[in-house]
Design a protein that fits this description.
Helices cover about 30% and strands about 35% of the residues. It is an alpha+beta fold. Strands 1, 2, 3, 4, 5, 6 and 7 form a 7-stranded mixed β-sheet that branches. The protein is elongated.
Length: about 375
């Protein structure tokens, strides 16, 4: 396969809700998230691929939205192909008569002219099955640009342009669009990047450290489909995994577009584990909307940070213990082992006072240490 060639993963959203939802899942997923696609029938997958699906793994592909309609003879005819996002196929397996793919989402795709691209693609493909809603083919990149997923501003701009295009399709009439645009630590506003988890799924995740707060940002765009009927309000719900809690359970979306911040607090964590924050529309009657799974890796506070955090209390407790020992020594010897005199005050009184004060201070310091350990 040539360097610029890509596997093409076609989905026709007009064919049924499962195809439309698959497209939305890939289109709105956080960068590097893994999405499972399961509707590639053996009938429309070449026998070579079906017999050796592992040949697809670790290869780049383009997710293609097919704008197709049925004619009077009940046959599908394709109007345009819309490439929306690049993905990397991480795993391919056969499930009965279907090919299941696990894809890692990458950058969005810019196309200068969809009609020209569609005509060229139709001519270049030896066969493409418009009667099928989900199929696989191969082609070069042609006049397409894949946006660098590290360029967040460009990614958001292209995502918004693609939303406007998808919203004009009959299949996505009254559909909602929203996506994750950022994860930051609240205390210093530093970006939290995806990190490798060391396991297959999820391969990457946002790392959340115990007892810290994070801000996740959701961007929405609710297209006005026509002048009479507008999708101008939406409630987005969150489902938090164990170990995390949010400052809100719902995001109330009003108007055409906007950005929404949610503060996520990571509780005390004893061991590293991976989980997901789920973002979904509260209204189950909404025709189509993304179901976002934000992978997170929950990690305890590093030992050195916990030790540094408690070092002041440890040193104070140690000094208090020394003073207690010194007070006991004064009482026992009835003299001042370190200093010549305390004036007219007797050694016994000084020793008793010092011991009593430190006996009050030491339990307080120890309880603060225990409370900090439980919190961590």
């Amino acid at each position: 396969m040539a360097e610029e060639e890509r596997i093409l993963l076609f989905k026709n959203p007009t064919g049924g809700p499962q195809y439309a939802q698959a497209l939305l899942s890939v289109f709105c997923a956080p960068m590097k998230a893994i999405v499972r696609l399961t509707t590639y029938r053996r009938l429309w997958v070449s026998e070579d691929i079906f017999q050796s699906p592992k040949a697809l793994e670790n290869r780049k592909a383009l997710m293609i939205c097919v704008d197709a309609e049925r004619d009077k003879a009940n046959k599908w005819w394709v109007k345009n192909f819309y490439p929306i996002r690049e993905v990397t196929i991480k795993k391919a397996e056969i499930e009965g008569d279907y090919l299941a793919l696990w894809v890692e989402v990458q950058g969005y795709i810019k196309c200068k002219d969809y009609e020209i691209y569609s005509e060229e693609l139709k001519r270049s493909l030896q066969t493409y099955p418009p009667d099928e809603k989900s199929y696989i083919a191969f082609d070069t990149l042609r006049d397409l640009d894949v946006v660098d997923m590290n360029d967040h501003a460009a990614m958001l701009a292209v995502w918004q342009n693609l939303v406007e295009m998808l919203a004009g399709l009959k299949a996505f009439d009254k559909a909602a669009f929203y996506t994750l645009t950022g994860v930051k630590r609240k205390k210093d506003q530093r970006n939290v990047d995806f990190e490798k988890t060391g396991i297959l799924e999820p391969a990457f995740a946002f790392r959340f450290v115990g007892n810290e707060e994070y801000v996740i940002t959701i961007q929405h765009l609710l297209p006005f489909h026509d002048k009479r009927e507008k999708l101008g309000r939406l409630e987005i719900a969150l489902r938090m995994p164990e170990g995390l809690k949010s400052d809100k359970d719902l995001i109330e979306v009003f108007g055409r577009h906007g950005s929404h911040d949610m503060v996520i607090k990571s509780k005390a964590i004893s061991s590293t584990e991976c989980s997901v924050i789920e973002v979904y529309p509260k209204d189950p009657s909404l025709k189509f909307a993304p179901l976002l799974s934000i992978p997170v890796k929950l990690s305890p506070i590093p030992l050195w940070k916990r030790s540094l955090k408690k070092s002041g209390l440890i040193i104070a407790t140690f000094i208090a213990a020394l003073f207690y020992t010194y007070g006991q020594l004064i009482q026992a010897t009835k003299s001042y082992p370190s200093w010549q005199t305390f004036g007219t005050i007797s050694p016994e009184l000084i020793g008793a006072t010092l011991s009593a004060l430190t006996l009050i201070v030491i339990p307080i310091l120890v309880s603060l240490l225990i409370a900090g350990e439980r919190k961590d």
